[in-house]
Design brief:
Layout: E1 2-5, H1 23-30, E2 34-37, H2 39-42, E3 52-55, E4 58-61, H3 68-84, E5 89-92, E6 103-105, E7 113-115, H4 119-126, E8 130-133, H5 137-151
Parallel strand pairs: 1-2, 1-5, 5-8
Antiparallel strand pairs: 3-4, 6-7
Helix pairs in contact: 3-4
Length: 157
């Protein structure tokens, strides 16, 4: 089983209340080949919600309110779901303060990207889960196909 950000599977859970649908990801979820997670919602944040960014190891929303607690709780709950389904590889939403890998917004709400990982990405990797973002979807599919060939555990379609 693999894990995916809910928004990539068509769930309208982004801070704006929309999705980031990738049709093949939705198909995988529909075929029960992937489990969905939205750490922000799992942490108690609503839909829609104020946009958040990481600033000096804290997650703050655009009004300056500290949302670190919600992001940490959501990351823990996402990890629990993934462990329960024996997930060891995920495809998450790029640049997110929760799911981003390698690049996140800088905390100024100016759409400036910096090197860094989101709260959930950090926790999942700490627990040995391999993280890809959708901007590396080709590498993600190559990885799961290689695993499928090696031991039959993942399925692309």
């Amino acid at each position: 089983m693999i894990g995916v950000s809910s928004c990539l599977a068509g769930v309208k859970c982004t801070y704006r209340g929309d999705d980031n649908l990738i049709e093949i990801i939705k198909e995988m979820v529909d075929r029960k080949k992937a489990v969905i997670i939205c750490p922000e919602v799992l942490g108690g944040l609503g839909i829609p919600r104020n946009p958040c960014e990481i600033r000096k190891d804290r997650v703050v929303d655009i009004t300056g309110e500290d949302r670190t607690k919600e992001y940490e709780l959501g990351a823990k709950k996402a990890l629990e779901i993934l462990k329960r389904h024996d997930v060891d590889v995920v495809l998450l939403k790029a640049n997110s303060p929760s799911c981003g890998k390698n690049k996140i917004y800088d905390g100024s709400f100016s759409h400036t990207l910096i090197n860094g990982d989101g709260i959930t990405c950090q926790l999942l990797e700490k627990h040995g889960i391999i993280v890809f973002n959708e901007d590396k979807i080709d590498e993600f599919f190559k990885f799961i196909e290689r695993r499928r060939v090696e031991n039959g555990t993942y399925f692309k379609s």
